[in-house]
């Protein structure tokens, strides 16, 4: 019994090291994939790099890589898909931070793109990062099987479009202006769309790359769904308790802006219990996987313990 | 000899009728593909429809459809690809019109999206339309061959991303702030990126759908390139001479804003001669095609004669 907490601490250290290693590999891939800072329009290229490289936990990329590991996908394929997901995520952050949206000055401890450059550049950077995500997935270098590439493009688009991430952002904006607070079902739907769908896709992408059967593919998708929901609660708890320095962005904004969060509805205690329940469910979806899923299991535990 | 102008007038009438018919078919396809105006986030869906349906010449869609006709592509496939290109084009217009970009109030004779709704909605509408273009191309319904779908996604992304349309928009923004005017080569590059690449892709898409050999595919691509360049000059001439009512948008802005156009550099006479030369070259790329290319030939002639 006495070994358990130590083992858990070991797993946590192993996870952190693996995530840092993966983030650095993904940064290298982003460096290779994104346009070099040259030519007349180099400030666009520079800002695309600024918005995606060298910062952030790259959780979504990690999910792609670890999902891919379950099916023995070639590292180069997995890294390209992981980089594409980070481009998509980066685009959403750049546009989310715009004055007309959340109007944020700080992101990952650095000025947001529209602060470091200007608003027009930030709009174009987000637009181009989205495009580049699809260009990356569709290119023959990502996988020799065009059916895999087309499926990756389709599922990423479904996860991030009007009925996915962007739809969720629209609901979020509307919630801020609404007079009546959202109920639990409405908040759940909003967050499932806004952040959940892309995390779900990230977990599923490895199975698509590995041409996995529907069974294991669905297990990863469901794992991603629970992890995504737990991650959102953890993010809200962090916003409540962490300092801006720890989080690398403005914190305590949610309560101030009357943001629709499960935390606001349930309170921190019940929200934390809910997140723990989600983590347990997430791990259960991995029951059919072998020891290669160790980092995915550790990640589930990590989600609700992180400080940034 | 005396029959030639009459034949030409007939061809022009035939083209106009065909373009109107195609635009209406593409609108039907957009109606089928875009999310219905229902649910909490219906204003997002409504604005996506507003930005793409029921207005505009749908030149790009027409190019897709007529390109596809050369290779006997199924109408349903061609219409889906045509609708996707119009979604992509619509997104670029919505973002281009934003206050931080061109700050336009009028588009196709109607208030721009950020005027009819608000800025945040316009940002999200553009984002979601881009995503939906890729979702449409990647879906199995567009073509039974996944290699065709992946190639369509890849080429659309290359045409519209940081090294295509968005790169061109960046150059355009920079040109407006620049102290020295651009030279002919720089303007040519700007316009090739900003509007040329997507028109080129539109002409090429039919060949991709038809799994055409490199030879005829390149002919269509080159045709699209010349048409695109001629179209840009015609657009600038129109901006100079047409009324806002005719054009459905603010005109005379280019000269006022010191916009970098070939027209500004060459003057109207030389610019018109240049456009006519491009039209002749465009038609020459169709020499190897049979009578099915009649509308593409007529379109080339039409480009520099249109009033809106």
Automatic annotation (TrEMBL), chains A, B:
<dbReference type="InterPro" id="IPR033749">
    <property type="entry name" value="Polyprenyl_synt_CS"/>
</dbReference>
<dbReference type="GO" id="GO:0004337">
    <property type="term" value="F:(2E,6E)-farnesyl diphosphate synthase activity"/>
</dbReference>
<dbReference type="GO" id="GO:0005737">
    <property type="term" value="C:cytoplasm"/>
</dbReference>
<dbReference type="InterPro" id="IPR008949">
    <property type="entry name" value="Isoprenoid_synthase_dom_sf"/>
</dbReference>
<dbReference type="GO" id="GO:0016114">
    <property type="term" value="P:terpenoid biosynthetic process"/>
</dbReference>
<keyword id="KW-0479">Metal-binding</keyword>
<dbReference type="GO" id="GO:0046872">
    <property type="term" value="F:metal ion binding"/>
</dbReference>
<keyword id="KW-0414">Isoprene biosynthesis</keyword>
<dbReference type="GO" id="GO:0004161">
    <property type="term" value="F:dimethylallyltranstransferase activity"/>
</dbReference>
<comment type="similarity">
    <text>Belongs to the FPP/GGPP synthase family.</text>
</comment>
<dbReference type="InterPro" id="IPR000092">
    <property type="entry name" value="Polyprenyl_synt"/>
</dbReference>
<keyword id="KW-0808">Transferase</keyword>
<protein>
    <submittedName>
        <fullName>Farnesyl diphosphate synthase</fullName>
        <ecNumber>2.5.1.1</ecNumber>
        <ecNumber>2.5.1.10</ecNumber>
    </submittedName>
</protein>
<keyword id="KW-0460">Magnesium</keyword>
<dbReference type="Pfam" id="PF00348">
    <property type="entry name" value="polyprenyl_synt"/>
</dbReference>
<dbReference type="InterPro" id="IPR053378">
    <property type="entry name" value="Prenyl_diphosphate_synthase"/>
</dbReference>
């Amino acid at each position: 019994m006495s070994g358990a907490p130590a083992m858990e601490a070991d797993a946590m250290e192993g996870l952190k090291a693996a995530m840092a290693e993966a983030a650095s590999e993904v940064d290298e891939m982003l460096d290779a994939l994104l346009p070099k800072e040259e030519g007349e329009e180099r400030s666009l290229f520079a800002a695309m790099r600024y918005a995606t490289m060298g910062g952030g936990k790259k959780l979504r990329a990690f999910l792609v890589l670890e999902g891919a590991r379950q099916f023995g996908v070639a590292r180069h394929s997995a890294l390209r898909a992981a980089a594409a997901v980070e481009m998509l995520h980066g685009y959403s952050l750049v546009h989310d931070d715009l004055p007309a949206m959340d109007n944020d000055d700080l992101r990952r401890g650095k000025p947001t793109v529209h602060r470091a450059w200007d608003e027009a550049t930030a709009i174009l950077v987000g637009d181009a990062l989205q495009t580049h995500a699809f260009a990356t997935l569709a290119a023959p270098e990502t996988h020799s099987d065009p059916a895999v590439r087309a499926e990756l493009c389709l599922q990423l688009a479904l996860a991030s479009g009007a009925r996915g991430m962007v739809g969720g952002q629209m609901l979020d904006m509307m919630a801020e202006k609404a007079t009546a607070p959202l109920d639990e079902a409405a908040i759940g739907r909003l967050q499932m769309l806004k952040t959940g769908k892309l995390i779900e896709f990230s977990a599923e992408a490895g199975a698509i790359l590995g041409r996995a059967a529907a069974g294991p593919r669905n297990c990863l998708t469901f794992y991603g769904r629970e992890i995504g929901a737990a991650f959102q609660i953890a993010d809200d708890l962090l916003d409540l308790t962490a300092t801006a320095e720890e989080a690398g962005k403005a914190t305590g904004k949610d309560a101030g802006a009357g943001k629709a969060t499960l935390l606001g509805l349930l309170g921190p205690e019940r929200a934390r219990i809910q997140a723990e329940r989600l983590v347990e469910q997430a791990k259960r979806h991995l029951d059919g996987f072998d020891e290669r899923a160790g980092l995915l299991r550790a990640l589930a535990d990590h989600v609700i313990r992180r400080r940034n």
